[in-house]
């Protein structure tokens, strides 16, 4: 009996313990322009191209940290849909943003389209110029440009973005793709034209350009079976017209960060919250 007990004890001592390997982290790729990169929000990602102004606190870094994802962030300020497919013109150290996507990528976020045809920056510049050159006119930008700033969005931006999203789908067929809309800069009623140097009557016009852009982004997402993350409802009460402690997007005059007319840290956190909610719903 004693020998049997000793033998059992000896066997228990030499029996190897099999270690269980931890699961590999979920691979996550973030693509997009300055709103995706968090341009203007400090600190910047070390080693990233300086012109990209890629923030360590952009929404993709927040999502990755909260979910334990392994992030490859290819977002870059001033990026256009053409930059899905090749290095960004004039920005040394960049490569095709699609290179961040691999067959094993499980989550992809994309926030892109606002720079195509100069939609975002070009509209603000045009409306500021119209206000300065035609003082006393309530809505000089709308009168001068009409549909010319809106028409290229459906005609060129939407098909270009759809093409880029199809390429993402082809590279990572099993990935869940989340296409993020742009947060509202201006409220639905009233205006904060003074913060952007545009004429008061042009606030609705600039909003209409932004609405057309978000509609194109939504339709591109739907065309490839991606999830559209709508930031417009989440922006209510947090536009650039509100106070510094409330707003998600900075104005031009009175901005609290280096790059105006872009999401601040609060805005990037708000985008992350909506992306996480979308991930959790599926």
UniProtKB/TrEMBL annotation:
Keyword terms: Signal
SUPFAM superfamilies xref list: SGNH hydrolase (SSF52266)
Highest rank taxon of the organism: Bacteria
Pfam families, per the entry: Lipase_GDSL_2
Range of residues in the leader sequence: 1-19
Residue ranges annotated for the SGNH hydrolase-type esterase domain, each copy included: 31-270
InterPro entries: SEST-like, SGNH_hydro, SGNH_hydro_sf
Protein name: Lipase 2
Organism: Williamsia phyllosphaerae
